[in-house]
Amino acid sequence: MMERAGLLALLVALPFPCLADDGTGRALYQTGAGLAPVVAGRSRPALADRMTCAGCHGIDGRGGSEGGAARAPAINWQTLRQPTQTRPAYDAPSLARAIRQGTAPDGRLLQMPQFAMTDAQLEALSAHLQDLDTSAYQGLTADSIAVQLPADPAQARAAAAAIAAFNAEGGSFGRQVVADRDAFADLGPLLDHLRGALTGAEARLAQSRQAEGWQVDRRIDPQAWLVLRRDGARAMIVPAPASMIWARENGESLEAARVHALTTLILEELRQSGRTITASAFTNRAMRIDPAAALFVYDDPKGE
Questions:
Q1: Structural domain includes residue 86
Q2: What phi-psi label fits residue 251: left (phi over 0), alpha (psi between -120 and 50 degrees) or beta?
Q3: What range defines the domain where residue 83 resides?
């Protein structure tokens, strides 16, 4: 009896029970599956995408904007369990009241829909909120950062080579970057985005040279480098020198050199982001990288 009483006391003391999400909590959070919200005292038969938990608070629970309006707060488990200047810490009962009644732990009315969730649904949602903390740091260990390589073999080789060079320089705060499917960051979508922006960066660089009297050759092949000419001299806009050297020494294409250079920028952004950044925050930062830093103007000594 004493052992049971001690166990019950321990469970009550925990801010949230430790749960495992079987997928139900994720569906509730992302789509509101099976839920009808109550807004301004009125029940709505369907849940608009922007009114789901993810629609307001972000897919990762780190906060977001409701249809472009005021920013909704972070609701991942690590955040909820900590008190702030405006509210006490949440526990399981106060989280249930927030969802069902729209009230904060201190009794304040929250500007959010209310949901008549069952106990089982609340348990599943709580489990998913705890999983959000895990996914935010998935692929991070004390000495490594896992990334997923692009699916294209040539791009994967280029990215792997850039990673090897990055690791040889010390990696990121003592962490080595490794390839793994359970990754902190997926390089494929990041590289696709930056590669699309690279063409515009090349055009802007060429335009700046035109102001100095250079003429730009018409590029028939969109994957070829841009050629500039002026008074018998010739220059080319190419990926960064280290990436060009790698491609030449390994028999890789110009496009692979571009991927190598862009991966190098992503890895440098990873280093600049520090040790405690989350996966979603890093992805947002990486999507804003200026790809112009991956470019170099090579003056051809042979000219024409």
A1: yes
A2: left
A3: 14-136
